[in-house]
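Quick entry, no commentary yet.
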Amino acid sequence: MGGAALNPDQPLWQWGPVHLNATILWTWVVMAILVLTSWSVTRRPGTRRRPSKRQIVLEVIVTALRHQIRDVSRQEPGQYLPFIGTLFLFIATAALLSIVPGYVPPTSSLSTTAALSTCVFIAVPLYGIPHLGYRRYFRQYLQPSVFMLPFNVIGELSRTLALAVRLYGNMMSGAMIGAMLLAMAPLFLDVAMKLFGLITGMIQAWIFAILAMVYIASATQVHESRETQP
């Protein structure tokens, strides 16, 4: 698994055109953990007086996300919570599992971060168009003049690329440093670096989710501010 830590896209198993690498393997593991945890927490919710510990943790996370979404978008967070919450929980869980020996965060692969950023790129018009309508939404690409259309499109693509590279760079650097220290340094230093990587990963999960919300909020608010101008 040492080579996989430095190159998570390196095949671990291959049969003809089908191959399995660390990125795919650990992505499935993270998804399974999220599904099973959600099922176990929601199938038997505790009472109002005696909620379970898992329910309390989940409610704290959901409440914090709702407040942050409301602060960023100035809208009711219910419509955005499933998407933004899923992004945060996936990236946070991927970082949390870094304390497990041999684990390779799927977010240390550019293919994973690019896929997450692509989801954000697609979500922006999916939220913006129903909220504003086709004409009002696509009019932003012609502002302040029609000649700005290619530059506005490039801006949309570049911020998606920046979102992917930012998360990839932070997670991949942590995985590489941890792998090198494990080979050269005492165990306690590796543990310290894993804890540092865990904190960094949680921060990156929060930043990624908030930036996604900022992009979505801008798609639903820019036109409204322009429409109200005399």
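second:
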Amino acid sequence: MGGVMLNRRRAIAVALTLWLVNQVIGFGLRGYPLSATAFTWGALMGIGTLLAVAFAAIRPGFSQSSWAGHWLWVAIALIGGFGLFQGLIMLAYPMMADGHFMDWAIVVKIFATQARWAGAIALCHGALLGRQVTACHPVPDQATP
């Protein structure tokens, strides 16, 4: 969602910051093993995050010309970004399963969670944008000629 709502540089900075915080929490607080496999998974998730943000930050012209275009791009960015991120994970998974299990049912559950979060963030962002547009372009009073 950062790629849709922020400029590219800021979206990448936010995504990398969130990824770094996630790594610090995982390795520092949750005790993830300090192994090549764990570091590789972390790097893959960072790369996947950057791919998703870069895709969402494309923001084609139709997404900037109307609310319908904006919401269409939000949906496309969500699906495309998720596909890029999860596709990278699914490609690496057979080589790095390390005793964990993943199937399409898990991927669908992850997508449903991500879609709910994306929807909530997009609705809040849309409300803020609508409020800003109204403040910049107030509706004229109908009673005044």
